[in-house]
């Protein structure tokens, strides 16, 4: 059939569907796949950060009570707050800001503040995508990670809804960590307590990366009944088979934070003032 006839028939179909200006249609245009249906899964939870001001309280919980009594774990030197100076949304991204400032909480004074967010959504299996820019400054320890929702950690959102066990019995998945002295190094890691022996176990991998502070990159977790895969820009760099001796067949929730100093943050420069992590979106598929 003549191509002009085909084009004319196509225009008639468009008019019948209510398209008032067929001449404006690009016949070569391709439609992007629906973001609700990706990787063969459905989008079940997300935050696109397309609002301004405080983080969405229906989706996020600020964890602010130190889990070690007066301090956080791993030698970290910050307090986490629920102040908008440490976490807010603007221009389409979530900002988590670690600052040098004296701040007292429950009688304990620290020299730095930051934010630690828990998702109010817990899930089992699927894929997490987090598109973000990481902090550039030395001494910062940013992380996107998960904990078993049955953890008995003080101040977490889920409490004893899913049970009450300690760390590492709950299981931890570090989708992204970066130490404070090498911003070209990416860490994906697992920490868990063996469900049969109670022994602490951990395993992970590192990846050399560039431009994590100047560009948005994609940090992902793929989690099935039998396997955990950690990805950077859709490239898998760590795979672990899982079984019943590992606490990864149970709901987890996601955490975002920037710690200061400590095991992976290291020395904080004397001239440090503040550092920002930006998150464009988080999407969870199942």
Explain what this protein looks like in three dimensions.
This protein has 286 residues and is mostly beta strands. The protein folds into two domains: 30 residues, no CATH class; 249 residues, Jelly Rolls (Sandwich). Helices cover 6% and strands 45% of the residues. The chain has two helices and 18 strands. The strands form two sheets. Strands 1, 2, 4, 5, 6, 7, 9, 14, 15, 16 and 18 form an eleven-stranded mixed sheet that branches. It has a seven-stranded antiparallel sheet with strand order 3-8-17-10-11-12-13. A hairpin with a 2-residue loop joins strand 15 and strand 16.
Brief characterization of the structure:
6% of the residues lie in helices and 45% in strands. It is built from two helices and 18 strands. The two termini are 45 Å apart.
* Biggest sheet record: 11 strands, mixed
**Could you spell the SSE succession in H and E letters?**
HEEEEEEEEEEEEEEEEEHE
Query: What does the radius of gyration come to?
Result: 22 Å
Number of helices: 2
CATH architecture of the largest domain: Sandwich
Instruction: Report the span from N to C terminus.
Output: 45 Å
Structural class: mainly beta
| Helix share bin | under 10%
Beta-strand percent range: over 45%
CATH fold call of the largest domain: Jelly Rolls
Topology:
Elements lengths: L2 H14 L20 E2 L2 E7 L12 E3 L15 E3 L6 E4 L2 E13 L2 E7 L1 E8 L2 E8 L6 E9 L23 E6 L7 E9 L6 E9 L8 E7 L3 E6 L2 E7 L10 E9 L1 H4 L8 E12 L1
Parallel strand pairs: 4-7
Antiparallel strand pairs: 1-2, 2-18, 3-8, 5-6, 6-7, 6-18, 8-17, 9-14, 9-18, 10-11, 10-17, 11-12, 12-13, 14-15, 15-16
